[in-house]
Structure formats: structure tokens, C-alpha cells
Design brief:
This protein has one domain. Helix content is 81%, strand content 0%. It has 57 residues and is mainly α. It has one helix and no strands.
């Protein structure tokens, strides 16, 4: 029974480590993409074009 508990704790620890590494690695990409998309929307709002649909990238 003790080995099962240790095994479950080890699996959970490894899973959280992997998820943490993925979040740490992908967070800068997420921030950059949000900034670029915001700048794109700002450009479209300022340009005053007739086609103001965001869905047509």
C-alpha cells in the first residue's frame, strides 16, 4: 500500500513539473501574440477602412 501512495505522488509530481515547464515556455509566446493582435486591432480601428470585420484577417 505504501508503494502505491509513493507511486501516485511521484506521478502527480512529474505531471505538475511537465505542466509547469510547458506554461513557463509558452507564456512569452502567448504574451507576444496578444500584443501583436492588439496592435493589429488598433491599426484596423485607426485606419478607418470600410471593412471593420475582425473575422476577416
Amino acid at each position: 500500500m505504501l508503494w502505491k501512495i509513493i507511486g501516485v505522488v511521484a506521478v502527480v509530481w512529474i505531471a505538475l513539473t511537465l505542466v509547469g515547464a510547458l506554461i513557463k515556455g509558452l507564456f512569452p509566446i502567448l504574451v507576444i501574440s496578444v500584443v501583436v493582435f492588439g496592435l493589429y486591432l488598433l491599426y484596423k480601428a485607426i485606419s478607418g477602412s470600410d471593412n471593420s470585420s475582425v473575422t476577416k484577417l
